[in-house]
Write a structure and sequence with these properties.
With 385 residues, the chain is an alpha/beta fold. The chain is built from 11 helices and 12 strands. Helix 3 runs parallel beside helix 4 (99-112), helix 8 (260-278) runs parallel beside helix 11 and helix 9 runs antiparallel to helix 11 (367-384). It is globular.
């Protein structure tokens, strides 16, 4: 049976070079980076070298890169400290954010009485920037505001004009946080030129290991840790750092950006091929702007299927039997009975709420795999009708 992995927005395969780097560190550099002896200092040297390398990729200061267990922890650190330490009393976000943002904002609203505002969407599923400006203009002094909008949506692939939003937030004196989990390693990000206060990334989205990521926290931001203990990570995140995983993340990021143009073009061609094939299947609908390469990321497609919800439950299973991996909504929601909150938000602006699948691509996919999936999908849909 052929096996095809088209769920790269959920997680990506490790590059062999990343495995090699991690194995080397695991085998030979096991010291605790907080220890003062030579074993610990060897690990500390790797840790700080990786921090410098990662910071350089984003044109940031090394001290602005705080290693975490991933994007979710980084989001929580920023949100909780923004409320408790920066005095934020209003959070403006959108209904299509990752739950690491939405659930954290909702919890803060419930626990601390934070005012939570949701930006509307345009008829294409993009963030309504006019509404964002209106919400910002309605905030009265001395209200402190945190705006949180993801750079690339993990379900429908829509791209936020991040620089425009950052400048808008700055003009109103609001803090700006962006979940860049789906864009780090896939798009250039210059944190020196971009007036953004906070961003987050996760290594496993760009062919690095799971369980490690980082928060970009602008220097002198005033944030404080939410995990207390030792003084690791400049006092911002207690706990012994997983040096092998951080080394793997740095290597994955290095390779992602060193090969960015070539790999972008290759994966983009796969997406174009997939979209062209999907258009030949009667009744297929595209969710959000994912079929428009000028408005969506080159890495994913989200499609509505012309089958009943009852039969849709079997479709993912049928594809899995054919060796094909994809997602219903986002992988972070698997097992949820509520369905995709992103697709529900799109339904509110006129997109038909249909059984949907997300297919996401990487450098390890091939044109032949794309054709195989298209054939299998058409066959399954025909059999369901």
């Amino acid at each position: 049976m052929q096996k095809v992995y088209l769920d790269n927005a959920a997680t990506t395969a490790l590059r062999p070079e990343v495995v090699s780097v991690m194995t080397e560190v695991l085998s030979h550099e096991f010291g605790n980076p907080s220890s003062t002896h030579q074993f610990g200092q060897a690990s500390k040297s790797i840790l700080e070298r990786c921090r410098k390398e990662i910071a350089k990729r984003f044109n940031a200061v090394p001290g602005e890169i705080i290693f975490t267990s991933g994007g979710t922890e980084a989001d929580n650190l920023i949100f909780h400290s923004a409320v408790s330490d920066l005095g934020v009393t209003t959070i403006i976000t959108s209904p299509i954010e990752h739950h690491a943002v939405l659930h954290t904002a909702e919890a803060l609203a419930q626990k601390h009485g934070i005012n939570l505002e949701l930006v509307g969407l345009t008829d294409t599923g993009a963030i309504d920037l006019d509404h964002l400006e209106q919400l910002l203009s309605e905030q009265k002094e001395p209200t402190k505001v945190l705006v949180s909008l993801m750079h690339i949506n993990n379900e429908i692939g829509s791209i936020l004009p991040i620089e425009q939003v950052a400048l808008l937030c700055k003009s109103f004196g609001a803090y700006f946080h962006s979940d860049t989990v789906q864009s780090a390693g896939h798009y250039p990000l210059d944190f020196a030129a971009l007036p953004i206060d906070f961003a987050v990334a996760a290594a496993h989205k760009f062919h690095g290991p799971k369980g490690v990521g980082f928060a970009f926290i602008r220097k002198n931001s005033g944030l404080n840790p939410i995990i207390l203990g030792g003084g690791q990570e400049r006092g911002m995140r207690a706990g012994t750092e997983p040096v092998y995983a951080i080394a793997g993340m740095a290597k994955a990021l290095e390779m992602a950006y060193d090969n960015l143009t070539q790999e972008h073009d290759y994966v983009r061609q796969l997406k174009v091929r997939f979209i062209d094939g999907l258009r030949k299947i009667p009744g297929i609908r595209f969710n959000g702007p994912c079929c428009d390469l000028s408005k969506s990321t080159y890495t994913l497609v989200n499609v509505g299927l012309p089958i009943s919800p009852e039969k849709a439950g079997l479709l993912l299973f049928q594809l899995d039997l054919k060796g094909i991996a994809c997602s219903q909504g986002s992988a972070c929601q698997s097992g949820s009975s509520g369905g995709s909150h992103v697709l529900t938000a799109l339904a509110d602006i006129g997109f038909p709420l249909m059984p949907s699948l997300r297919f996401s691509f990487s450098i390890y996919n091939t044109a032949q795999e794309v054709d195989y999936v298209l054939e299998a999908l058409a066959e399954c849909i025909k059999g369901a009708n």
